């Protein structure tokens, strides 16, 4: 009999009917003798609704109080699912993040799980009950409620699977696995029966929201057997593999994107060592993640310095950068709040320089201007105007032969 951690995302628990369907699935697994921890998200749309309420009062609301508010979404779902399970005669009890022993750091809105006291859940499982746990939330060092960032219930599930040494962590969502790109943008996208941990990590970090990046990091660190499946259909989904090459090892295995980008440029800063640290120091002190960075030296002793941040953090970053611009005597700060990032990912690309050329030619043919470029051994990312995002994703998906039925082996991207 297996110990399984199952996670159901927002759409999968989006109505009472869906919650009853989840309860039936869980009940069947319990009757088969499996020990089950079920992590749930807020019902679909609920977290955004709560965010909207707070924004109606204050655009810069305190992160501590935002977490108190946002964590209520998941609490509704654990109550409802536990009620639905009990109605079916399935012994179950609910746990908030804190009750499930999840301790985090103090970074409200994007807290990291530091430790898990697995005793409460072990005790629950030992009595034959299903443990229904609120995703996305934990207890900070000062005892306050924290949340783990958007999509954080994935991370709750994988972290619990690691702590409990579960046989498998199954992420049930509204698509039946990990695809070559978001199937909602490119209907020709193909499900990958397996994907390497490294590729999944890269796709998630570059915006493929099917798994939150931190859940993949946890999975890699503790080698958690991890699978993405549909909560609506049967099927084997996508298995995340460790240390095995991809089935096909294509040059490019997937395309990820993020709409949530904003860029900030500080123009005319003195071109001297340490200036980059002076610009980014306050941003980093404010716990704002900087993504892509470009510095252009102008030859007159000055430079322009551009970087991108998540749109959620744009307003705070701009305020800090304007202060830095004053201190450095820079010309001005320019911003673009409607950027997007599109990335190609593949373990096979690291020694194939032709991949970059294929990508840039493809975007050029579509008339899409790249504003920043970042590369690593297994990815190339470009920042573009958001209005071209869908076109870019589809064109690149075609250019790299990723579509259903495409002959990947015959591709020559050199
Ligand atoms: P949940 O509410 O279950 O956590 P999410 O909306 O967070 O679900 O994640 C699932 C969504 O991720 C899919 O509906 C799909 O639009 C999107 N997605 C983005 N990239 C991919 C990809 N490569 N493969 C599958 N889904 C993807
Ligand atoms: N409810 C949270 C969100 O919408 C967490 C999650 O769904 O994983 O981001
Ligand atoms: Mg999600």
UniProtKB/TrEMBL annotation:
InterPro entries: AceGlu_kinase-like_sf, ACT-like_dom_sf, ACT_Aspartokinase, ACT_dom, AKii-LysC-BS, Asp/Glu/Uridylate_kinase, Asp_kin_monofn, Asp_kinase
The keyword Amino-acid biosynthesis belongs to this UniProt entry's keyword annotation: yes
Gene Ontology molecular function terms on file: kinase activity
One protein family per Pfam: ACT
Enzyme Commission (EC) number: 2.7.2.4
EC supergroup of this enzyme: transferase
Highest taxon in the source lineage: Bacteria
PROSITE patterns, alphabetized: ACT (PS51671), ASPARTOKINASE (PS00324)
The entry's keywords: Amino-acid biosynthesis, ATP-binding, Kinase, Lysine biosynthesis, Nucleotide-binding, Transferase
Reaction equation(s) it catalyzes: L-aspartate + ATP = 4-phospho-L-aspartate + ADP
Family: Belongs to the aspartokinase family.
Name of the protein in question: Aspartokinase
Natural source organism: Pseudaeromonas paramecii
